[in-house]
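lol forgot to send this yesterday, sorry. struct tokens for the thing we talked abt
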């Protein structure tokens, strides 16, 4: 969102923040048996509550503590051989398909080990085995627990585990993402922007920051959340919206960064002596991967890179509230985005929502890679349940959220707006490859260690 406001009457800066938080685990609105009957939490998880109408709000600390305890109590005992922290765990898609079919044939809910993909925490390798009609995903893994945000994370690392429903969305959405990519955005209504433009003409000297903030929130009203490329009712969609929300909360100083030495954008901007009027920063999260390594035969593919970066641009706001992209970057906003990107590995270790965004990005690239390179056909693998038949859990789709405003001291007086979102083009990333013969070793190790199970550990 974006607009301008005369604040010369008081030496403070109005900070408008409009975004929404969700997290890894949200309550179900349908097919609650899929999640083991856990559809009773009223939508509160990961820092927000979500109503049946799609309106988002923040739960209390007590709500989150109660939720974490309830989810943790609902987890099944983890098999001892899955608890082990390993640098490389292999998960067979053919075996996963068969495991789902076995439980569904008996009309039983899926075990946690299946729903959490044997504790995988990232996809590092995609391995194709035509002689076994299989495709295998491999990466670091261990047992799991629930963290304070409601995310399912590694028992010792605190890094979120991959989830079956996110994998299914990534595989099923591959053709769509080739056309649209994957994105989320949160935008004010035209009506709200016009009202805010009128408000700037009405504010007078002497108005308190608290009063101005309240008036601004009222006239802006609720903002609209849009998700493209994946179903808005999916867990995948909630992950990308949650990460966008938490990124902006850090930028706008609504909560301190979970790591030392990372000031908010507001703290950086408050030190600036110069700022162009009606120029408002916009941030968004994007993919940050190196080129994918592949072996000469196209049987081994390795994903590389930290996965996520933050980008920024200045929007120009005209008198009628309309916004235009400028291609320019405001120095303080650029510095904050660069700091976020440079410190992302640390942030992801401390805030599982950012690491979970990286997880779904990994899966989206895997989905694009399998489709683009015809790897299903190359492996001779059919996955009817993963690709179509297995029902996805559905959640209340995030649709709108109230605007928030805050104030900080500043000499000149500007209105700063947090907008942006998340953008990912998995097909573009899947198209960027380099050949490496050294990957043949991973292919051989994967098949050597397989023992007729749907998952197995590598040798640490």
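and heres what i got for the seq, position by position
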């Amino acid at each position: 969102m974006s607009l301008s406001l005369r604040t010369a009457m008081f030496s403070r800066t109005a900070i408008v923040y409009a975004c929404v938080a969700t997290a890894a685990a949200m309550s179900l609105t349908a097919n609650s048996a899929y999640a083991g009957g856990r559809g009773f939490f009223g939508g509160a998880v990961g820092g927000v509550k979500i109503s049946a109408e799609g309106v988002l709000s923040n739960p209390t600390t007590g709500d989150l503590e109660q939720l974490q305890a309830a989810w943790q109590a609902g987890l099944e005992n983890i098999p001892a051989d899955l608890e082990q922290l390993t640098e490389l765990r292999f998960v067979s898609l053919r075996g996963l398909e068969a495991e789902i079919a076995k439980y569904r044939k008996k009309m039983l809910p899926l075990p946690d080990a299946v729903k959490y993909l044997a504790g995988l925490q990232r996809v590092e390798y995609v391995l194709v085995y035509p002689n076994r009609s299989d495709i295998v995903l491999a990466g670091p893994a261990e047992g799991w627990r629930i963290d304070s945000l409601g995310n399912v994370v590694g028992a010792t690392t605190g890094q979120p585990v991959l989830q079956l429903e996110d994998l299914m969305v990534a595989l099923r959405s591959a053709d769509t993402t080739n056309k649209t990519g994957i994105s989320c955005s949160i935008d004010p209504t035209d009506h709200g922007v016009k009202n805010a433009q009128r408000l700037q003409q009405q504010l007078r000297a002497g108005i308190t920051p608290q009063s101005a903030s309240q008036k601004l929130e009222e006239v802006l009203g609720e903002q609209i959340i849009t998700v493209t490329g994946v179903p808005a009712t999916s867990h995948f969609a909630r992950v990308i919206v949650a990460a966008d929300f938490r990124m902006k909360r850090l930028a706008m100083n609504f909560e301190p960064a979970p790591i030392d030495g990372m000031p908010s954008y507001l703290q950086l901007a408050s030190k600036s002596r110069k700022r162009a009027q009606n120029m408002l920063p916009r941030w968004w999260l994007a993919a940050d991967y190196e080129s994918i390594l592949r072996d000469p035969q196209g049987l081994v593919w390795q994903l590389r890179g930290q996965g996520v970066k933050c980008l920024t641009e200045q929007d120009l706001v005209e008198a009628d509230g309309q916004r235009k992209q400028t291609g320019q970057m405001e120095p303080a906003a650029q510095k904050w985005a660069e700091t976020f990107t440079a410190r992302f590995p640390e942030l992801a270790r401390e805030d599982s929502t950012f690491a979970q965004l990286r997880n779904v990005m990994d899966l989206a690239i895997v989905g694009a890679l399998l489709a683009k390179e015809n790897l299903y056909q190359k492996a001779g693998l059919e996955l009817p349940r993963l690709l179509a038949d297995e029902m996805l859990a559905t959640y209340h789709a995030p649709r709108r959220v109230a605007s928030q405003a805050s104030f900080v001291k500043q000499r000149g007086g500007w209105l700063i707006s947090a907008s942006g979102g998340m953008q990912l083009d998995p097909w573009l990333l899947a198209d960027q490859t380099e050949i490496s013969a050294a990957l043949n070793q991973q292919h051989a190790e994967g098949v050597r260690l397989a023992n007729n199970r749907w998952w197995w550990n590598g040798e640490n």
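The chain has one domain: 12-457. anyway ping me if u want another try
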